[in-house]
Amino acid sequence: MEEIKNFLKHRIQKAAELREAGINPYANNFKVLHTTQEIAERFQEQQKEEIEACEDVFCIAGRIISLRNFGKSTFFHIQDRQGRIQVYIQKNKIGAEKYAVVKKCDIGDFVGVNGRVFLTHTGELTVLANHFTILTKSLRPLPEKWHGLQDIETRYRQRYLDLIVNEHVRETFLARTRIISCIREFLTEREFTEVETPMMQPIAGGAAAQPFMTHHNSLDMDLYLRIAPELYLKRLLVGGLERVFEINRNFRNEGISTQHNPEFTMLEFYQAYATFEDFMQLTEEMVGFICKKFNKALTVPYQGAEIDLTPPWRRLTLKQAAAQYGDLDIHDLDDLEKARTHAQGLGITLTGHEQLGEVVTEIFEEVAEKHLVQPTFITHYPVEVSPLARINEQDPTVTDRFELYIAGRELANAFSELNDPEDQRRRFVAQSEAKQRLDGQPAPVDEDFLLALEHGMPPAAGEGIGIDRLVMLLTDSPSIRDVILFPLFRSERS
Known about the structure:
Elements: H1 2-20, H2 36-43, H3 48-53, E1 58-69, E2 73-80, E3 83-90, H4 91-94, H5 96-102, E4 110-119, E5 125-136, H6 152-157, H7 159-165, H8 167-189, E6 193-194, E7 200-201, E8 212-216, E9 221-225, H9 230-238, E10 243-251, E11 263-272, H10 276-295, E12 299-302, E13 305-308, E14 314-317, H11 318-326, H12 336-345, H13 356-367, E15 376-379, E16 401-406, E17 409-416, H14 421-439, H15 447-454, E18 460-466, H16 467-475
Helix pairs in contact: 7-8, 8-10, 8-16, 11-13, 12-13, 14-15
């Protein structure tokens, strides 16, 4: 700590000396005309003589990430948004007064440079500065060059340092942006309209999850940060917007892990006159489109496994998957007592209030999920765990629903939408009563959504895809914290 205090004191003194010399250490009058990548691409195919014959002057700015002083000359590398390049400054080239400013520069400072380019004797493309400006004086040290920023928690808490020193981290977040752009491109080409729905909702609906609560003072009403946008997007189907999507945040007041962050990004999209089976094909097409754009192939490496995204993907019903991976007789999953016995044998904790579909789903999650490495659609979820999905016409105990699993985790959830307002009311009431049994507090019935359904919602399918998990897959990232710029942490003062 004392070392940091001394370092900070020394840098503050340098900033003061610059001010005394009439130089603003936080200037904002430098116009950047080029990037390091533009310069590199301009000369990548040229020989030394061609490069040095070029009289063009380039104007770049960035952070100093390495620095070597040799008395009357200085080499440093600067890094901008596209890369890095070496700069060479000579005292006799820029003058003693300007060179005195160079001598007060440190690693971490932002500078602006004008100059022509040349190749050093080692063959490195370098800007020979004829003008130099300090733009920002850095007061604290960057992580040590060779060891970088290794502490995982520090990387996440101080992501700005992580982005400075770890190039692969910058690439991951640039990739995230490209992936989301691909999603928008895919859906807009298919006539989907991007919309925005409320983040604060009077009823936390659209999924079974613990919400965050807030309070609006002027209206004197409690509100919830949304756990899902589903019920508002369906209202838009009622209103005649037949194809809609939203990419935005959801909030769930639940645990934190390598796969879960309380604030996360979801894509939800809905299409009138489509079924969950249509959406299986659409999902294969979408993920394939993104993968080919991003990865140039339909296979991606993920944590030691090669994931093959070539369609068609495997399809199993939830009961088939539970029986197959649990080594169970599938007919036992039609009997509540036998299913409970199997669940308890697997170490699953039951309250005694569970219905058959809930027990079977628990068994599936325990025995099957981790084995679903290659893309697999798990279909026909029980009615008890699917309060917003349409009942299957051949088997009324299950719904027309699928979840997509890749690399052992759920990536998407979709179903043919329930649009019968009377059936929806019965499901809401059953859901409320189940919550009452579980924790003594009934869930509110969303009368406003039921009112919308009573005006008529066309037959439709809807789907949610976890953007963070998709980015994890396509960037080979083991933790959700690696793909969220500022993941949530316990306060350091706690």
